[in-house]
Design a protein that fits this description.
It is found in: Cell membrane. Keywords: Cell membrane, Ion transport, Membrane, Sodium, Sodium transport, Symport, Transmembrane, Transmembrane helix, Transport. It catalyses: L-proline(in) + Na(+)(in) = L-proline(out) + Na(+)(out). With 502 residues, the protein is mainly α. The chain contains 21 helices and no strands. The chain has a single domain, classed as Sodium/glucose cotransporter, CATH 1.20.1730.10.
Length: 502
């Protein structure tokens, strides 16, 4: 990287910190910190939802899979998310918003105590929080690999530099800072993505999206290839539908922050459209990479996007592309840190430390900032200890994708009126059974069991979790008038009768 590239990267960091400082003035209480007070415009909520859904993992692990296998990574990743979020625009997005507007919910898990019971809420809170800290560690490792590849910065220092910048604006500005930086990062990442697309077009010709497939191995145009089978695709589609509609807690926050259920629905439809279209601009250069930087084998394929960028981009543009990589990771990490802080402060700490319930509004806000700081710090330490290389794809697919289903099923299906008679017994059995199945399969995979494919590892925990939730739920019905009232209140934006009277 040259001087101009470094100027671009450093300038980007300063802008992110400045947004955090400016957003601090908009945060007066924990409602502002965790849900933007329900005042976020639908278009900003939609863009923030999209940006918070992926990170630099795309340019490391997914770029590696695009280099090795071709089209399949778009089919099983971007396409499943885009369609799933579109479905969720009608099923889930408005309901998340109404939890905030009608029930003053500030954490995605806060409603679970009323929907099921307190033990169910606590099981899901602890399981999800532990999963998230490892997930974010993988994101730090991914962006640090990119920084090392472009600029020669050691993995550890890369994690520290990017983590500290993210920590500053996340701790200061809460969800407002997350959303505003998401928007700025969306602009930067768009410029960086088009820069790489045009650079590849200048080398291979403007028709390269069509012509490259004749020059690549025939299997690269297959919708499913390598370990990514139809079983894997179907399981991942259900997982991503649950995950990106709120099972990934930070994305539920984006819907909660919109002014109304209708606005949340519009934001989800915008995010869905972006998921279907924008990744194509990013993936086409990755699919063309074997023609530009051939011969990358094994773990070296993780550097495919880096090597192509170093070879093709002029001074200044490498810095912009690198800033685009940062934007993805920082968007996801800051939003995850915010929602984990919400879960810890609203759902976990009050039951561990009773004094928290008596805190003043100012002290609650201070505690939220301390929790955010701590979460980011712990995830950075795990990322540094991992060493980076090879850690990213294994965490994202083998851990996060495989365990997200069991954690998300009771959370997401619990929002829908069709499952109103399913209670806490089924919910806890679903989570514990699904995670137990994953642990068994993961140990078998570590022992080199050939039958534990990626499809098995991802689909079996999900299937068992879903079967347990439905079977136990319908065999042991646990009706509740309080639960019925809660679910009925989420069906429309109409205010509650007592609020009209008031």
């Amino acid at each position: 990287m040259g001087t101009l590239d470094w100027i671009v990267v450093v300038g980007y960091f300063f802008v992110m910190v400045a947004i955090g400082l400016w957003s601090r003035g908009r945060v007066q209480n924990i409602a502002d910190f965790f849900t933007a007070g329900g005042k976020m415009p639908w278009w900003l909520s939609g863009i923030s939802h999209h940006m918070s859904g992926y990170s630099a993992v795309m340019f490391v692990a997914f770029a590696s899979e695009a280099y090795r296998l071709g089209l399949t990574v778009y089919v099983w990743w971007s396409l499943t998310i885009g369609v799933g979020v579109g479905i969720g625009a009608f099923l889930f997005a408005p309901r998340w918003n109404r939890l905030r507007s009608k029930h003053d919910v500030k954490s995605p898990l806060e409603y679970l105590a009323k929907r099921y019971n307190l033990p169910t809420q606590q099981v899901m809170a602890y399981a999800g929080a532990l999963l998230k800290v490892v997930d974010i560690a993988a994101k730090w490792a991914a962006v640090a690999i990119l920084l090392r590849g472009f600029a020669g910065v050691p993995i550890t220092w890369g994690i520290v530099i990017i983590g500290l910048v993210t920590m500053v604006y996340s701790v200061l500005g809460g969800l407002w800072a997350d959303a505003l930086t998401d928007f700025g990062q969306f602009i930067i990442q768009a410029a960086a993505g088009f820069a790489m697309f045009f650079a590849v077009a200048g080398t291979l010709g403007w028709s390269f999206p069509v012509t490259i497939w004749d020059k690549l191995p025939e299997s690269h145009s297959d919708p499913l290839a390598g370990p990514y089978t139809s079983t894997f695709l179907m399981a991942l589609f259900l997982i991503k539908t649950l995950e990106y509609n709120g099972g990934m807690w930070n994305l539920a926050q984006r819907y909660m922050a919109a002014p109304s259920g209708f606005a949340a629905k519009r934001s989800a439809l915008l995010s869905s459209a972006l998921w279907l279209v924008w990744p194509l601009v990013l993936f086409f250069p990755m699919w063309a990479a074997p023609l530009i930087v051939p011969g990358l084998e094994g773990a070296q394929a993780e550097n495919a996007y880096i090597e192509m960028g170093k070879q093709m981009l002029p001074a200044g543009m490498i810095g912009l592309v690198l800033a685009g990589f940062f934007s993805h990771t920082m968007a996801m990490v800051s939003s995850d840190a915010n929602v984990i802080a919400a879960v810890i402060n609203r759902d976990m700490l009050p039951h561990l430390w009773k004094k928290v319930k008596t805190f003043s509004a100012d002290n609650q806000l201070k505690l939220a900032r301390i929790t955010t700081f701590t979460f980011i710090g712990v995830s950075m330490i795990i990322a540094i200890a991992s060493g980076g290389q090879g850690f990213v794809l294994k965490v994202v697919v083998d851990l996060v994708a495989a365990t997200m289903g069991p954690i998300a099923i009771p959370l997401m299906l619990g929002l829908l009126p069709w499952f109103r008679r399913i209670g806490s017994t089924a919910a806890i059995a679903s989570v514990v059974g699904g995670l137990g199945m994953w642990a068994f399969l993961y140990i078998e995979q570590m022992n080199k069991a050939a039958w534990v494919t990626k499809g098995v590892l991802v689909s079996w925990p999900l299937l068992l979790s879903l079967v347990l939730y439905l079977a136990i739920g319908f065999l042991k019905k646990e009706p509740s008038t309080e639960r019925d009232a809660l679910l009925d209140s989420l069906s429309s934006d109409e205010p509650e009768p007592e609020k009209v009277k008031a």
